[in-house]
# Entry
Amino acid sequence: MSTPLLTVENLSVSYQGRGEEAVRAVEGVSFTVEPGEVLALVGESGCGKTSVALALTRLLPSSAAVSGRVTIDGLNTLEAAADSLRAIRGGTIGYVFQDPAASLNPVLTIGEQLVEAITLHTEARGASAGHLAVEWLQRVGIVSAEERLHAYPHEFSGGMQQRVCLAMALAAQPALLVADEPTTALDVTVQVQILRLLRDLQRSLRLSVLLISHDLTVVERIAHRVGVLSAGRLVELGPTDQVLRQPQHPYTAQLLQYRNMISLRPNHQ
Amino acid sequence: MTVILEAVHVSKSFPRRGGVLRRQLGAVQAVERVSLALGTGESLGLVGESGSGKTTLAKLFIGLLRPTEGEVLVRGASWFRLRGGERLAARRTVQFVFQDPMNSLNPRMTVEEALSEPLSIHRLAAGASRRARVDALLELVRLSTSYRRRLPRELSGGERQRVGIARALAVEPAALICDEPIASLDVSVGAQILELLRALCRERRLALLFISHDLRAVASLCRRIAVMREGKLLELAPTEQIVNRPGHPYTTLLLRSAELDLDQA
# Structure
């Protein structure tokens, strides 16, 4: 077994409300992501899955108290200085979020945003950065990529915007891609396209991915291993097949049962 | 089975405006010649993606929008020919449940006030009998009567949706139109809301129109499914048939997408 790409040890996050008692959103969570692996964190609203994703690069608001250790490329991001943190955010660790419209800058063209990500995080400059931008747009399945560089985000559909977000995240050549509910806001037919794209890119580029999702079926399709979060704690972690076929924790079993109730061929209790 | 609601060749278009003078450039055909009937005790699912016209059709069904062509009939009478008391009675016949009750419930009204309001508008109960009705409604949606004094923000998403359903049921409607009622809920909570709707449909002989982008939710609740795309009704058939022998290629695509079949869809 190779050494893990990302190691998260005993991660805790709590939020301080106004004068009230702090809310513990994440409690003592530990996991690793191996090179070329897709690890999914699954759970319902409020389970702490997004807090984990954001804590990796200290993207949480100042009201959040984070403790534990997050190691990537031999660096503990929770103690990293501001300038190395800037290189890690979007560089070592790339993000794709749920709402692509909110992730893109509405007043910059797609090309400007892609080139910005490329020049910030790679050696490429000028024309070669422009070439890379076109290449990445093609790789995420945008046709007539060269012309589309001059388009603004509002000229793209939600699915195409999410393709651009994926291109922007990957163009920076991150060691780890964090995808937080990347298909949740999309129409079902588009969801399938984006998920297939993510799976195909992951396979061809051997990407390491931390996938955050509430949807066990999404997890089932692309994750190698899955961790189940409940009320801030990791209650189960194992190979996807094993966790979904023989859940060890009652909470996992319950999630699976609810999923089977809402299906094309539901089995009611 | 008595028909409660019926759309007869209903179309709805919206003007498309542009330029500095906001001149009309054309029209968007949101719903195109749709015919659909909903009867007592029946659960009909309406499935489609964004822009398919499903919410516009819902608004036509409850008389919030006037069709550009065709008619929507409530117990055989056209919405826009009804006046005064008849119209109020029709509003009582057809009730609506929204996606996010946080937006549809008044944030300053307690649960009790929210449930009492429709009772007083339709003059159904007052005083002690109104209190008893509120308790009965809470029990119907499986909420304890201790919820009476709570405000919407003091409720979870699932509890708010139960209050939304209780408010719709307060006037004892014959038909319930639910537009994406579980889309913003966790799976576990959504499954419980579906179970509640299933029970209501069975026990109270409610006519249920369940609108969703999620074919899985529709298939697990409804007896019949209508598939819409770009304003048109593509297919209408029993759930078993839609799931196992879809008649339209778009339905097949939706089925494979619903199962997240990455290699086929």
Summary: Chain A touches chain B through 26 residues (CB under 8 Å).
